[in-house]
Amino acid sequence: MPTRPGTAPVRTHEASHDDALTARELYRFFRAGEEETLALRGVSLRVRRGETVAVVGPSGAGKSTLLSCLAGLDEPSGGEVRVDGVRISHRPETERARLRAQHIGVLLQTRNLVAHLSVRDNVRLAHSAVGGRPAVSARELLDEVGLAGRAHALPRQLSGGELARAGLAVALANSPAVLLADEPTGELDGGTERLILQMLRDRAALGCAVLIVTHSAEAVRVADRVIALDDGRAHDVSG
Ligand SMILES: Nc1ncnc2c1ncn2[C@@H]1O[C@H](COP(=O)(O)OP(=O)(O)OP(=O)(O)O)[C@@H](O)[C@H]1O
């Protein structure tokens, strides 16, 4: 069972079969001209099935870099990421994309929607990336996020809250073992924020490992555990 903030035991970074997501000693080094940045400095973390973890930290702490490395969108310079026991890091981009399509849902700040496709076709596109018969139909997913009535709308015709819900439907299209969300409630009003967070919690209750990069106090409140990133280093601040 997930633990509540304040009761989390001190964790080691040895993987257990309950872990859907593990990162071990992640480093990410950037060089832009003369400028060199070490955005991640040995970050290790685990997220168990059914657990919701919030990642917080000041601007520039490395949160988005971490999420990109966990999702296989970016390659860490060192260390390893495993999803459902399968290593996703240090593989060619096409293999990372295939593993991501199979195991991970990603909800990004810029929204993971194709502008010229309807909400329903965006979900179907995500289905096609997985291949085979989807475990959950587009209609069921749109029902789940309360957008059944907006299935034919284009992203630009949606409100901010509807966009967030459509992005979530796309992120959930592959019934992911791990759901990674970057500021999923950033521009939303309080009511819509609580709705989105509840949907993420519902997914965790079904066994998904949920990691949310956030500045939101509400997201921190509902998380089982909080990891603080500071200058590329991670600290579990739940206990
Ligand atoms: N592609 C890149 N090239 C060079 N430096 C980068 C790149 N991406 C990130 N960085 C640097 O890495 C550090 C961490 O950036 P990152 O975007 O991960 O921080 P963040 O915690 O997500 O910040 P914010 O809360 O403002 O989004 C910053 O110093 C940033 O300038």
Key structural traits:
single chain; 239 residues; alpha/beta; Rossmann fold; six-stranded mixed beta sheet; four-stranded antiparallel beta sheet; 7 helices; 10 strands; 31% helix; disordered N terminus; binds adenosine-5'-triphosphate
Mean pLDDT, rounded to whole units?
Answer: 88
Determine the fraction of residues in helical runs and give it as a percent range.
25-40%
Note the gap between the termini. 16 Å
Bound molecules: adenosine-5'-triphosphate
Question: Looking at CATH, which topology of one domain would you report?
Answer: Rossmann fold
Q: What best-fitting shape do the alpha-carbon axes yield?
A: globular
Structural class of the helix and strand makeup?
alpha/beta
CATH superfamily grouping of one domain: P-loop containing nucleotide triphosphate hydrolases
Number of strands: 10
> Strand content of the residues, in percent?
25-35%
Per DSSP, the total helix count is 7
* Radius of gyration over all CA atoms, rounded: 17 Å
Strands of the biggest beta sheet: in what spatial order?
6-7-8-3-9-10
H/E series, N to C? Answer: EEEHEEHEHHHEHEHEE
CATH architecture verdict of one domain: 3-Layer(aba) Sandwich
What's the CATH first level of one domain? Alpha Beta
Sheet with most strands: 6 strands, mixed
Q: Can you tell me the residue ranges where pLDDT is under 50 for at least 5 consecutive residues? A: 1-13
